[in-house]
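User:
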Amino acid sequence: MTEPDRHFGEEGARLTYGSYLRVAELLDQQRVESDPPAHDELLFITIHQVYELWFKQLLHELTAVREAMFFGSLWWARHLLVRVHTIENVLIQQVGVLETMTPQDFLAFREKLSPASGFQSVQFRELEFLSGAKDPGYLQRFRGLTDTEEQRLRLRLQEPTLWDAFLHVLDTAGLPAATDGDVLSSLLAVAHDRSRYGEIWELAERLLDHDANAALWRSRHVIMVERQIGTKSGTGGSSGAPYLRSRLGLHYYPLLWELRSQL
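Assistant: Predicted structure:
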């Protein structure tokens, strides 16, 4: 049996960098709405499209993390959560690029965005639902969902969360997880016996990294919004910065934070 015919490099001429990554199509997606084109609108569109690409990757990774926990592959779940943490660090730093845009430059095209808003990012809501912060009310508050987007969100509301998968890990290890009190007692047992429960402790810490990075991103985001538009309402009809500030206290895994007070 002969080896499969493989060609690498230019001589192969079967697949190029541009065709594999669909670069032409990708670079055709940044369409400015302002006329004449506002200089910073391209930056604004690019940054948010990049966010959506990273959101897609995070959903891919976190879904795999959830499945790994349910199937007992704790090392794989931890490995992927380290990757998630690294990606989220990029998302946090990316806010700084938007902060190079002055309020005057943003106002040059902001009115063209209405009623579009970051509030309408379906993938961001999927990430929150998957992480554990399920909010069915989002489907009623946002009327611009396509049928496909609504179906995706409803599925996320029905599916187990990362926290559900972690509770399964505790239960499989023989640690009570039926109530919040049970979980806290189990977490204390894990924390005080890392020689026995080291894998579970490390997994819990990586979940906390994910939670902490989400909080850091929200904080950077609200500061950026206040820097750009102050207390103006959001283009999608939200209260803007006040709404974003109301979500700064959100934790995906409050028991992991409560554990610190009990140690």
